[in-house]
From TrEMBL:
<protein>
    <submittedName>
        <fullName>Uncharacterized protein</fullName>
    </submittedName>
</protein>
Length: 73
């Protein structure tokens, strides 16, 4: 089994904790001053990523970007 990868998911606007509730255990949430919300957390595998994206799209959240974070110091 492969190690989880840390990802940053950037979404448009200031998403409320109510909308993000299913993701709160897996991600830290940062409401940036530039009008986006950044979610940073570990994704274990492709099915986990698909579940996260399915939730975001089901509540009509616009995903701007998804990127793995470099784990090197």
């Amino acid at each position: 089994m492969s190690q989880p990868t840390t990802y940053e998911i950037v979404i448009r606007g200031r998403a409320s904790a109510r909308l993000l509730r299913p993701l709160l255990d897996d991600f830290t949430i940062d409401h940036a001053s530039d009008g986006v919300t950044r979610l940073v957390g570990n994704i274990g595998d492709a099915s986990h990523m698909h579940g996260v994206l399915a939730h975001l799209t089901s509540v009509n959240i616009e995903v701007i970007s998804i990127a793995p974070l470099d784990s090197a110091p």
